[in-house]
Amino acid sequence: MGRERADGCTGFRVAAGAVVVVGAALVAAGVFTPDERPGRVLVMAGVVGAYAAVVADLRAVAAVAALAALGAAVFVGFLAHRYGELTGPGDAWSQAVPIGFAAVLGTGYRHLRSIGAEARPVTRITAHGGGVKSASRNRRRA
To answer: In which element (H, E) is residue 119 found?
Structure first.
C-alpha cells in the first residue's frame, strides 16, 4: 500500500501525535481569546491535518483518526469549554468537525503521495530518424 517502515515505531508516532495535539491546544489557547473559537479550531485542524499528511507510517492512519478525536475532545473540553468539560451548552462539537475533516484530507494526501512514490519513471527512447517513442513502464500492454 505504500512504503512503510516496519521498525515498530508506530507507538512512538502515536505518542508524538498526542503531544503535538496537546501542544497545538496550548498554542491556540495562548494566541486566541476564549471568544475566538474559529481561530482555535483552525489551529487544531491545521496541526492534525499536517500531522496526518506527514506521518511516515500508513499503519498509523487509525491512530491519526484517534488523534483527530483526541483533538476534537481537547478543543471541546479545554478550548471551547473550561476545565475539561465535554458536555455543556453551545455548539462546540459541531465546531470541532473541521478537525476530523483536516485529518481525512491529510490522510488522503499522504496516501496519494505514497501512490506517487511507487510509480516508475517514464523513459524515452530515440528511434531511427530522430523520432521519440515513449516507453512508459506504467502503461499496460494491450
So the answer is: none
Q: Quick one: CA dihedral 1, 52, 54, 105, positive or negative?
A: positive
Among 50, 92, 54, 83, residue whose Cα is nearest residue 68: 50
Q: Rounded to the nearest 5°, which phi and psi values hold at 123? A: -110, 150
Predicted TM-score (pTM) of the model is 0.69
- The Cα 104–Cα 97 span in angstroms is 11
Task: For residue 41, give Cα distances in angstroms to 84, 85, 97, 121, 131.
Answer: 16, 17, 9, 40, 56
Name the pLDDT band for 97 (thresholds 50, 70, 90).
confident
- pLDDT class of 74 with cuts at 50, 70, 90: confident
For the chain, the first-to-last Cα distance in angstroms comes to 25
Alpha-carbon distance of 64 to 87, in angstroms, equals 24
Share of the chain above pLDDT 70, in %: 69
Of 72, 64, 44, 59, the C-alpha closest to 114 is 59
**Cα gap 131→11, rounded to integer Å:** 54
